[in-house]
Amino acid sequence: MGETILVTGSNGFIGTRLLNYLGVEGTRVKVFCRSESMEVECSGKVEVVRGSFSDMEALGRAVQGIDRIIHLAGVTKAFNETGFEAGNVMPVKNLLAAVKANNPSLKRFIFVSSLTAAGPAVEGRIGVSECDTPRPVSAYGRSKLRAELLCMKSAGVIPVTIVRPPAVYGPGDRDILQVFQMLAKGVLVLPGSGGKQRFSMIYVDDLLRGIMMAARSDKAIGQTYYITSKQSWSWDEVIAAAKPILGFQKLYRVSLPLPLVSFVGTLMGVAGALTGKPALINRDKANELAQNYWVCSPERAEIDLGFTAITSLDEGIARTIEWYWQKGWM
Fold first, then answer.
1. Residue 172 above 70 pLDDT?
2. What's the pTM value of the predicted model, to 2 decimals?
3. Does domain 4-173+199-231+295-311 have CATH number 3.30.420.10?
């Protein structure tokens, strides 16, 4: 295609996959990454601009001469609201300012946000829609929502589109890896009973297709979309999809009482603060884990964009686990 796309967060799970997607497509790609970041891997030619999101000169160079921006960069772990502000809000603010100053003819700014910006649903089948009032339950979710609001404030000047994925899985993801590692040992530790919980998920390649459909649709300008599968799943359904691949015979479920989950999260958060490294689970993350229904509706994306997730849960989980085996992660 005769366009150039700027990707931020190119070394992350989704970003790495997106670069390969665009490379196969033949799209010219520019990436913006930190000076200390590893070399960018892509199946096509990539122009690299290095700098920080506080460096307006570097951001200006990054946005010049491009047609679309896919902003994936951000942080999922931080000590407090201030850390999430620096990692998720400030970069959006400065990137939008750089576009206004250096590329007023930009065709699209895609901000990849998160379902956590909206918060959990009150039930597990239909889920939240884009019309629902956001009610984030974590500092991470609140930071993503603040970044969304910045995008929408610029919508009269910059053609923005917001994408809110639910849980994303696939080759390269390290979060769901921990679940499969437990299942392979015949054990699954869950907050609460786990029996009531349902959640939306999206296979990474389906998400990329949805992101690019949103990026290239004029109808998507000024809109927010959940790019997700049509149905939500329970833990029983995820276990059933993984069992033929992992081959475990018996599964021992360990249910952690929610007060214990909160207590452990608090302890790990304190430990992270003492060591200077944000913990994987803190009290804030524990609050996310305690919610029953992380479910969202794909209806608007289907109507406006013609998007439908095509990877079944069985197929997606099989591909993911096989990739883990090939890489020696399991």
1. yes
2. 0.92
3. no
